[in-house]
Write a structure and sequence with these properties.
single chain; 162 residues; mainly alpha; Ferritin; 4 helices; 73% helix
């Protein structure tokens, strides 16, 4: 595997590590047990992403041979998180966490889109295309929840619509 491709995978893995640490921190600061468990679930999903990327990296470059994308298992489903577990008792934390999570996912989408054009391996390009879609799904889910939370937060602050 070429140095450029190795760096792309290293960056992808560290991005997921940062997500893991972020959600773990959010869980630690959550006052409500169901919210804490939801953030821990998101943290654990990031660990699965790390494992998936490491496996894909080894399959692409382990023996110096390219492999077909079909040899990869599908990435974990982003549908693990239970949105209904978010309660307004921790509205400030929830709004903050989801605002930051949206920015992290947006950056991940851009990273994988750019990686597709930088890699010299067709299998890696296809992998990064899958990852871009995967992160786009997270972004859409987080954005939907954030929109609901921010409306509730503004309402709680006394800025209800006229």
């Amino acid at each position: 595997m070429k140095a450029n491709d190795i760096m792309i995978f290293k960056q992808a893995i560290i991005n997921e590590v940062e997500g893991f640490e972020f959600y773990k921190m959010a869980a630690h600061n959550a006052g409500d047990e169901s919210i804490r468990q939801s953030f821990l679930t998101l943290a654990n999903e990031e660990l699965k992403h790390i494992d998936w990327l490491k496996d894909a990296f080894q399959k692409l470059g382990g023996a110096g041979e390219q492999v077909k994308l079909a040899t990869f298992d599908a990435p974990p489903s982003p549908g693990i998180f239970k949105w209904e577990n978010l309660k307004t008792q921790n509205a400030n934390l929830s709004v903050s966490v989801f605002g930051i999570a949206i920015e992290m996912e947006r950056a991940s989408v851009a990273f994988y889109k750019e990686a597709q054009g930088k890699t010299s391996y067709e299998a890696a390009r296809l992998l990064f295309e899958v990852l871009e879609k995967w992160e786009q799904g997270h972004l859409e889910q987080f954005s939907s929840v954030y929109d609901t939370l921010i409306k509730e937060w503004w309402n709680d602050q006394g800025f209800d619509a006229f």
